[in-house]
Amino acid sequence: MHEQYSPHDIEPQAQSDWNTRQAFAAVDGSDKPKYYCLSMFPYPSGKLHMGHVRNYTIGDVLSRFKRMQGFNVLQPMGWDAFGLPAENAAMKNNVAPAAWTYSNIDYMKQQLKSLGLAIDWTREVTTCKPDYYRWEQWLFTRLYKKGVIYKKSGIVNWDPVDNTVLANEQVIDGKGWRSGAVVEKREIPMYYFGITQYANELLNDLDQLDGWPEQVKTMQRNWIGKSYGADIVFDYDEASIGQAGQLKVYSTRPDTLMGATYVAVAAEHPLATLAAANNPALQEFIHECKGGSVAEADMATMEKKGMATGQFVIHPLTGDKLPVFVANYVLWGYGEGAVMAVPAHDERDFEFAHKYNLPITQVYKLADDSAAFDMAVWHDWYANKDDSIRTVNSCQYNDLTFSAAFDAIVADLEAKSHGAKRTQFRLRDWGISRQRYWGCPIPIIYCDSCGDVPVPDDQLPVVLPEDVVPDGGASPLKRIDAFVNCTCPSCGKPARRETDTMDTFVESSWYYARYASPQCATGMVDKAAAQQWLPVDQYIGGIEHAILHLLYARFFHKLMRDEGLVQGNEPFTRLLTQGMVIAETYFRDLGEGKKDWINPADVTLTKDDKGRILSAVLTADGLPVEIGGMEKMAKSKNNGVDPQALIDQFGADTSRLFMMFAAPPDQSLEWSDAGVEGAHRFLKRLWKAVHSHVQKGTSPALNIAELDDNSRDLRRKTHETIAKITDDYARRLTFNTAVAAVMELLNSIQKFDAADGQALAVERESLEAAVLLLAPIVPHISHALWQGLGHDDVVNAAWPVVDANALVRNTLELVVQVNGKLRGKIQVAADADNATIEQLALANPDVQRFLNGQTPKKVIVVKGKLVSVVV
Predict the structure, then answer these.
(1) DSSP symbol at 543
(2) 254, 232 Cβ separation under 8 angstroms
(3) Could you tell me if 249 and 419 are in contact, meaning their C-beta atoms sit under 8 angstroms apart?
(4) Scanning 259, 365, 742, 863, which has the fewest C-beta atoms within 10 Å of its C-beta?
(5) Number of C-alpha atoms within 13 angstroms, CB side, residue 36?
(6) Burial class (CB in 10 A: 0-12, 13-18, 19+), 249
């Protein structure tokens, strides 16, 4: 065993050994209990970032721990390889997205291997390969025939210059990111997953997920958004509209109907089109509304604008005429494309009414009259819907609670055939059509005679051509005759292939199941393998995926269940959402709101004796830079640390140790160069301790009967540490406290004087425990140290077991309080009675000093903890 710790020697050796014997291959059909640990797979952007390192180290720690506990562990890895960034990079570098993607995968795979991750690489999946996406095409055809997938027109962001659909993130200030053209809303045919058919099940099954963070479940409940309301029908005012008809809206607050003072419709609504026919100003406003993003988040934050149409509809209960507005906040693709407005009890409507001088009719007051209604200022209680409010200004519905008003008004609407109670979900069906190239082709053929025809099984996969360089305009697939032109599988006549591709969320919605049988050529998943491995026992990823990815994956699991492919209702038993990695930011102000962000590695800091930053200068020129504060590591702030550079300097184990020690997994990790250096020093100290022990020669067999008090103390400390860390790994997932516990144990070992005999045996037991307890976090050094201690394979070494006898104490240390304040400590026999403990406490010199000769009024002994003296 070498005297010095050299990660650049031991880490390649350990990795070579693991690779040679495929140490991390999961075993199908094993009789061991299974443990499936999965970290969300990466997009192959080119290089790993520190968020990746943290995410995958967390999963690796759990996987290695479970393997040492005797589980048959599956920890796979793959690549979420389709997506818009590859198209952008392809255009920038004039290279096909496929070539760019595969090159990135090769590099990132080597980075992952250099971290020493216990991954079963035989199960690797790449979502842009036909052997993967073939099966989602297969599922698409099944669901299309069942009606779970359907086609309808949908509103998208359209760039009129590039003639292409833009993702919401490609719309910047209402303009196309590439062309700069004002974006339009356009209605085009799209394919949709009928996720709303599963809305109730997706909502109710959240209650089964005891191993998920409550925050994530709440976010999903809110996104699914089950609400109880009513459809409300307003008759057209024929005099102003010019024809008979009805306008239907859905509202979760039919109880406020008596306060409705206007209705608003989307720019695409037939009423808007009719009103604009002879109104140039309204035509121009409608054109403006059709521009900009259709993203719900953008709609929520944009300025609310509207224009009166000159039309009116009839209030179904009062007969009053309500003006019809075209408003930019109403989307045609959602519900009826129309809303009822109650300014007194909806904040958005309140602001809109003030902006356009519309009536505000109060129909609720506080039941206790504790606050008056103010027409000029919005107060949160205006939107209450509970027993704190009572109706006013509502004719026959006055002095009712929220629920009573709801029921009474809906009943009257139903009696008049102008409304009905209805349960609705905020969740919308999932539009998966993307008018872009780098994605999974939608397996539909268009035939003039037969219509839309799903591609037959024997013609799958529909293979995406990979030797294509996009130009930023319409999808190049449209211009590839060999791809587009085909034969109708039903009638044999010439036909055209669909050129849209699927939303890349489709690929990431079922990859977890494919890992169970990635080489299966006869089905989406092998049923026996799925039954063995699913559900995933532990899923790990960022909180930013709490809604879309996790919701879609849950949805897909139910789809596959209903196809007989998998069992159970949910894909992931436990979920851990790891925190961000944050770091200091530095910049120079360029004026006009622009900043030049400077990487922390290029900044020299001056600190005071307490570590506070006094000044920061750019190392290259010595001139000052501004300190921007701690923020998430990101390219935009140039505050990232290259994981490969860290590995090259300190080794993978130092990187892993720092990541696990600096913060609990679910909290933000603050980057610290000093912390990295401290982690490296600890590993060198551990190496030195084991090396020093080995140099003392062979240890005798442990004989507990021969141990002295010091040896018993160290042995007790060792087994207390085993108990604590086992709980940290298995239940609490607090790896930072596990590392801290081993650090304390190492301190005790180094204070222990083990020259020979049983002391040497106890020291060996303690060092072996330390190495095994750290093996999931720092596997390379543990591999070398375990061999240095005379063993073979640390990967499959048995997890240390607590010896209950070692935890028994001969003596206990108790604290002594006088009038509630700590005044001394005493050592007592573990079996001492209360009288003996009281006598020792009162005889303690420090305690006597605070008694001042007084006789205690009371002495309370809390066994095993403290003595409380009252004077």
Answers:
(1) G
(2) yes
(3) no
(4) 863
(5) 23
(6) buried
For residues 81-95, give the mean pLDDT.
90
Do the Cβ atoms of 171 and 84 come closer than 8 Å?
no
**Helices 673-695 and 757-774, packing angle to 10 deg:** 140
Average pLDDT of the chain? 94
CA–CA distance, 373 with 362 (Å, rounded to integer): 8
Q: Tell me the C-alpha distance between 843 and 845, whole Å.
A: 6
Q: How far apart are CA 697 and CA 390, in angstroms?
A: 86
Q: Which residues are within 8 A (CB) of 225 and not within 5 positions of it... i.e. 6 or more apart?
A: 425, 426, 427
Write down the pLDDT at residue 583: 94
pLDDT tens per residue across span 129-163: 999 999 999 999 999 999 999 999 888 888 888 77
Residues whose CB falls within 8 Å of the CB of residue 231, separated by 6 or more in sequence, listed in order = 248, 249, 250, 419, 420, 422
515 DSSP assignment? T
Q: Whole-angstrom distance between the N-terminal and C-terminal Cα of the chain?
A: 61
Q: List beta partners, residue 31.
A: none
Distance CA 655, CA 292 (A): 44
pLDDT-wise least confident of 394-403, 558-567, 624-633: 624-633
Tokens of 345: 């009890």
Q: Do 525 and 560 contact (CB within 8 A), yes or no? A: yes
Q: Which residue has the higher pLDDT, 468 or 157?
A: 468
Element (H, E) at 413: helix 402-415
Q: Which residues pair with 36 in a beta bridge?
A: 74
Each residue of 308-352: pLDDT tens digit?
Answer: 999 999 999 999 999 999 999 998 877 899 999 999 999 999 999
DSSP string, 109-142: HHHHHHTT----GGG-EETTSHHHHHHHHHHHHH
Measured CA distances, 841 to 365, 850, 856 (Å): 66, 12, 12
Q: Are 157 and 173 in contact (CB under 8 A)?
A: no
In sequence order, the 6+-apart residues with CB closer than 8 A to the CB of 127 are: 78, 79, 80, 81, 82, 133, 440, 504, 507, 508, 511
Q: Which residues, including other chains, have CB under 8 Å from residue 186's CB and lie 6 or more apart?
A: 155, 156, 157, 158, 165, 290
669-670/581-591 β-pairing: parallel
The angle, 0 to 180 degrees and rounded to 10, between the axes of the packed helices 779-788 and 673-695 is 10
Query: Are 36 and 533 in contact, with CB atoms under 8 Å apart?
Result: yes
Output the six-digit token pair for 638: 């140039």
- pLDDT for the residue 292: 62
Q: Region 446-456: what's the mean pLDDT?
A: 97
Residue pair 484/442 in contact (Cβ under 8 Å)? The answer is no
- Write down the pLDDT at residue 167: 66
Judge whether residue 819 has pLDDT over 90: yes
Tell me the percentage of the chain whose pLDDT exceeds 90.
85
- Is the Cβ–Cβ distance between 81 and 43 less than 8 Å? yes
Bridge partner residues of 247 (DSSP): 234
* Cα angle, residue 792 at apex, residues 787 and 795 outer, rounded to 5°: 100
More confident residue, 85 or 804: 804
Give the residue from 430, 456, 438, 447 showing the smallest Cα distance to 499. 438
Cβ–Cβ < 8 Å for 480, 415: no
> 144 and 682 in contact (C-beta within 8 Å)?
no
C-alpha span between 203 and 196 (Å, rounded): 11
Q: Specify the amino acid at residue 687.
A: W
Helix (H, G, I), strand (E, B) or coil at 76: coil
Q: What pTM, to 2 d.p., does this model score? A: 0.90
Burial class (CB in 10 A: 0-12, 13-18, 19+), 37: buried
The predicted-structure confidence for 12-33, as pLDDT tens digits, reads as follows 999 999 999 999 999 999 999 9
Q: Do residues 486 and 496 lie in contact, with contact meaning Cβ atoms separated by under 8 Å?
A: yes
Q: What percent of the chain has pLDDT over 70?
A: 99
Q: Tell me which H or E stretch contains 765.
A: helix 757-774
CB atoms within 10 A of CB 173: 10
Contact 373, 390 (CB under 8 A): no
